[in-house]
Structure formats: C-alpha cells, structure tokens
Amino acid sequence: MIDEELTELFLAANCTGTVSAVALDGSGEAGFGADEPMVAGSVIKICVALEAERQFADGRLDPARRVRLTAADRTPGTVGFSLFQDDIEVSLRDLVAPMLTISDNVATDALVRAAGLDSINASLRKLGLTETVMTGDIRTVIDRIGQDAGFAGWDDLTRWRPPSDAENAAATTRMRQGRELRPATATRTTAREMTTLLRLIWTDQAGPAAACRRVRELMAKQLTKNRLASGFPYPATVSAKSGGLAGTVRNEAGVVEFPDGRTYAVAVFTRTERDGMETPMNHAIGQAAALAVASIS
Fold first, then answer.
1. What is the pLDDT of residue 1?
2. Is the pLDDT of residue 112 over 70?
3. Could you give the percent of the chain with pLDDT greater than 70?
4. Peptide bond into 235 cis (omega under 30)
5. Which ranges of the chain would DSSP assign to H, the alpha helix?
6. Counting CB atoms within 10 angstroms of each CB, which of 5, 8, 79, 142 has the fewest?
C-alpha cells in the first residue's frame, strides 16, 4: 500500500524518489527503493561534519586552529561565506556550524581540506556505509557540472546567457547527464545508508560521544524547514540536513522526535528531469517521510 502511495506522490511532484525510515528503538523500518544509489548533494555534509568532529575529539585536528578563507578562492554558493567580499579567519570548529545550519559551501571545502577527503571516505567504509562516497570537494563538484554542460567551469556556466530556448535545453540535458548528476559517478549515497548513519550518530556509535553530540546539536539548528519538517508539525521536532543540486536533485535526511519519545531516522532523495519543480519536491519529501514513519509507528 505504501509503495503505491509513494509512487503517486512522487509522480504528482514530477520526480522520482527513494525513502528510508527507521525507528531508533529497533521496532520497525520502511523503505521505498532504499538501497538505490542516489546523488547525495549537500546531505553528504553530515559525513564531513562527523569526520571533522571525530578528528577534533581524538586530537588529530585542533578545533581552535584558525583558517583563512580568501575572497580569491571562494567556493560558489547562495549563502554564507560565498557572499563575503573580504578575506576572513575562522576556527575549524566554527566552520562546522554554518556547514550544517545553512549548508555553507566555503566552510565545507575548508573542512574537507583539513580532515581529508580520503579520511572521510575511509571512515564511512569503517561504519559499513560502502555505497556512500564523496567524489570531491564542493568546488570540484560544481565545476564538473559546468564542464559537463559544455563550459570551462561553473562560473562560465552561470555567466552564460543562452541565445535560444533550444540551446538552453541542450545545455541542461548535458548537465543532467554529467558526472555529478549520475549516481554511478557522483557524490552519492542511499536512503538506507543515510538512516543507518543517523542511527549511529544518535546512539553515539558513529564516533566519540562528543563528536556525535555536536553533529546532533547542529543538525537541530538547520534553517531549512520546508522539506522533512513540513511532514511533522509541532510538537514533533526535526533535526536534519538538506541537499540539492542544479535544480535536479532535492534531498533531506534527518531525525524526527515525538513528545512521547518515539524517534525515527528518515531520508528522502528525489530527482526531476523538469525545471521549476523545487516547491513540489520539497512538499513531496515531507509527505513521503510522514507516510513512511506512519507505516511503522
């Protein structure tokens, strides 16, 4: 029954989707294409945060170390440090906050450089998350999208003014078929692996307790409230990390907690081949999560 409802829900939003929901007390789980690899988008920043916090906790990284973020080498983005015009300095520890709360790309790339891309992926493998892979920092991913659309990189793509609808459509098709928008070659995960990771974080099994606690605390402060949270009105609370990419991918993974103590890890990943579907996809994410949780509660 839930499969039919989710199929219709995603169809109405002009997208495809996968879902995983897991009760943290082990009382049940629900899935819809839960093991299908999907483009992760910024949901992967949960993994970056966890690795950074693990390295803070075990002494491999100094959380107070100052990092200079220069205007000349700034990762593109729509919020946060990407909009700053001047060089700034900030501690590694404080970079985790904007990464998880507003999905700051500059902060993410600074943390990837500090913690190490190989270390991030190695830690995921040790946790048994073999289908979750980060292929590069955010700047690399964004530039690959521009390159696959037929430009030198992301900056050239965003400066381009298509001379016709046909040429715009052709560039969009090339972009959607490119490396970072194909699950086989993109930064990727599955809905089930994300709920597994969240369960491990919420039960202090993903790393030192202090590391897990900080990731939980910051995910609770994410500003995006129109995806998972739209399916769970007050008094339920949602701690989550959203993700999206190039108007094609829209995702969110998080933990839903009810006043009676019931707690669920939920992940919904969606993809569209049409333009302008962001709002319907956001709504579908919340409704799909609500359906999945209701089926096991």
1. 64
2. yes
3. 100
4. yes
5. 2-12, 45-58, 92-101, 105-115, 117-126, 138-148, 154-159, 165-176, 191-202, 209-219, 278-296
6. 8
